[in-house]
Design a protein that fits this description.
This protein has helices at about 20-25, 40-50, 70-85, 105-110, 120-125, 130-140, 155-170, 185-190, 210-215, 240-255, 265-275; strands at about 10-15, 25-30, 60-65, 85-90, 115-120, 145, 175-180, 195-200, 225-230, 285-290. With about 300 residues, it is an alpha/beta fold. It binds pyridoxal-5'-phosphate. Pyridoxal-5'-phosphate binds near residues 42 and 184.
């Protein structure tokens, strides 16, 4: 399927302040938050080849999963509307079916024409169970189930383009790419380009990501090395702390780059903590990937 939108390479922006200078490190931000107004950041990278692989002759109808604030649901709803491909969203938490509980993300999805179906957390936990998926697929007449976060093997080539763009812009390979991790699909894509990745878990107990990321990578290929940081989750997925919000505000004021509290705020919070602890040898070049998600930024942050 031809995609009606094909964003230009996102900018690579140098960021320098007292912390990076003291660490003697060159920091760049890959501004994937600027890729597309609605299918932003890593969701565009991950969905690109999956959407291209759809054949209009099959009358595709996509079913996917997400929470009430999911950037993936948001992106897939927008992409589906643009491509005139119907979409169904299975939403975690029956309480969100109540109009008073509708989040701005869910409202947007509904306005884009996504059919929303609310399930209990217990049902949602079965989202990887083949029998449950089969049942959902037939109930909703879906031609394809897109896993949570849009993370499939088709996500990897899209994410690799981020690496190719960055290295063309920079003229060389940075020592590290730093990225926030939810399902780990973005980290896996960067690794599959052979680069070294620092992944910052947005969830509590993020150790499981190491295995998930490994499973996404094609076997017997030469991939980069992963360092996973699991201590910067601030209480868990979707949770935040006063320190995190204060950090975000300071970063935004200093650099004019907006962050949000679910993913990119935790990434930069963790990265700056490592910079301050002297984790990186002086002279290192780091590229932090701004994966977007600004629609989920806390109002009034
Ligand atoms: C979904 C999302 C992530 C997590 O990406 P994964 O590939 O699932 O690890 C990171 N940042 C933002 C802004 C996101 O929306």
């Amino acid at each position: 399927m031809d995609l009606p939108f094909c964003p230009k390479p996102s900018p690579l922006q140098a960021v320098s302040d007292a912390v990076t200078e003291r660490a003697g490190v060159q920091l760049f931000v890959k501004r994937d938050d600027l890729l597309h107004p609605t299918v932003s950041g890593n969701k565009w990278r991950k969905l690109k080849y999956l959407l291209q692989s759809l054949d209009p002759a099959d009358s595709p109808r996509l079913l996917t999963f997400g929470g009430a604030h999911s950037n993936h649901l948001y992106a897939l709803a927008a992409a589906g509307a643009a491509l005139q491909v119907p979409t169904v969203g299975i939403v975690r938490g029956e309480e969100y079916a109540h109009p008073a509980r509708e989040t701005s993300t869910l409202r947007f999805c509904r306005e884009q024409g996504m059919e929303l179906h609310f399930v209990s957390r217990e049902h949602y936990r079965q989202r990887h169970d083949p029998a449950y998926l089969q049942q959902l697929q037939s109930t909703f007449r879906a031609t394809l189930v897109v896993p949570e976060g849009g993370t499939t093997s088709l996500a990897l080539p899209g994410v690799r383009e981020l690496v190719q763009e960055t290295e063309a812009q920079l003229g060389y390979r940075p020592i590290y790419y730093a990225v926030a991790a939810g399902t780990g699909g973005t980290a896996a894509g960067i690794l599959s380009a052979g680069a070294q990745v620092l992944a910052f878990s947005a969830l509590k107990g993020g150790h499981f990501l190491e295995k998930e990321i490994e499973e996404l990578l094609p076997p017997e290929t030469c991939v980069g090395t992963l360092q996973l940081f699991t201590e910067y989750h601030q209480g868990g997925y979707g949770r935040h702390s006063p320190q995190l919000l204060a950090f975000i505000q300071k970063f935004e004021q200093e650099h004019g780059i907006l962050l949000e509290q679910v993913y990119t705020g935790k990434l930069f919070f963790g990265l700056y903590d490592l910079l301050q602890k002297g984790y990186f040898p002086a002279g290192s070049t780091l590229v932090a990937v701004h994966t977007g998600g600004l629609q989920g930024r806390l109002p009034g942050l």
